[in-house]
Design a protein that fits this description.
By secondary structure, this protein is of the alpha+beta class. It has five helices and five strands, in the order βααβββαβαα. 30% of the residues lie in helices and 20% in strands. A five-stranded mixed sheet has the order 1-2-3-4-5. Helix 1 packs across helix 2. The chain is globular and about 80 Å long.
């Protein structure tokens, strides 16, 4: 009891901010997290519908490109308090198909839903963009990530300096297409 004769109120823990994160380049021990996250979140993207994500292929990509930041890099989003991995982003920067100019493209970007915030996504996007610029990329591409409203994501992209570059069309060779009348 306190001096008023009342029972003390229970102490409430301060609610943690989802922005208590930093990023760092991935290490080999992060690969299981990266494979599991990519396998879970990439199929949620409309352009990867009906595509099977191979953890074996992704594991190979991450292991064989680790330490080769001249053409591939991956960053992990880390909870500052628990050191838990809560998101990641990766990209590659290579000569284009018809040029020797370097072109960068993202491989994946995901953040666990409970950690999604503008700050966390922008940190991962900025690391990718700065890395590609440091490599001398003439063009840096980024695809729409899942988990955000299209308008909000478009605004993030514009603030990062990206411009819309047309539309992506694809032909899904699924049963519906192959069996059409």
């Amino acid at each position: 009891m306190d001096i008023s004769g009342q029972a003390p109120l229970p102490k409430t823990e301060k609610k943690r901010s989802k922005n208590e994160c930093n990023i760092r380049p991935y290490v080999l021990d992060d690969i299981p997290f990266l494979c599991a996250g990519a396998k879970k979140y990439i199929p949620e993207l409309p352009n990867y519908k009906n595509i099977t994500i191979s953890e074996r292929r992704l594991d190979y990509l991450l292991r064989h490109n680790h330490g080769s930041a001249s053409h591939f890099q991956c960053w992990v989003l880390v909870d500052n308090v628990t050191n838990e991995l809560v998101g990641a982003g990766a990209g590659y920067c290579v000569p284009g198909m018809v040029t020797f100019d370097l072109v960068a493209n993202d491989t994946f970007l995901f953040v666990h839903p409970e950690w999604r915030s503008m700050r966390n996504v922008v940190m991962l996007m900025t690391a990718y963009k700065q890395w590609a610029m440091a490599r001398g990329a003439k063009m840096i591409m980024a695809t729409q990530t899942g988990g955000y409203r299209v308008g909000a994501m478009n605004e993030i992209m514009r603030r990062q300096g990206y411009v819309e570059a047309g539309f992506q069309w694809m032909l899904r060779l699924d049963d519906a297409y192959l069996n059409r009348a």
